[in-house]
Amino acid sequence: MDTLLTNQAGLDAFRTFLKSEYSEENVEFWLACEDFKKTESAENIASKAKKIYSEFIEADAPKEINIDFSTRDLISKNIGEPTLKCFDEAQKLIYSLMAKDSFPRFLKSEIYKKLVNSKQVGNQKKWLPFL
Fold this sequence. Notes:
This protein has helices at about 1-5, 10-20, 25-35, 40-55, 70-80, 90-105, 110-120; strands spanning about 120, 125.
């Protein structure tokens, strides 16, 4: 699944699939965390952390992710002084959820089949690194 998340065509197809299952917040959160970990200035760390928190973590967030209470509570307690690792545990949980739940269904979906077919040239398949 790692390679899928770094391949634009694969990521686009996976996002479309997750939207069809009403769970696109998972990949959006994962991507937001990846972007967040590359943040360099302390000011940007604080503002990006608050944005991720308000969008995905806090109760009734517009794209609230499904994580356990203790993980959510730990993030809530530390959001005042965030670090680049403050979302790591939640990101691992969401990655695991996608890998064990959504990704296997994606591989059986019509969206995935269309992606594979779109990468065919004649009778030869172009290389898709996540197949």
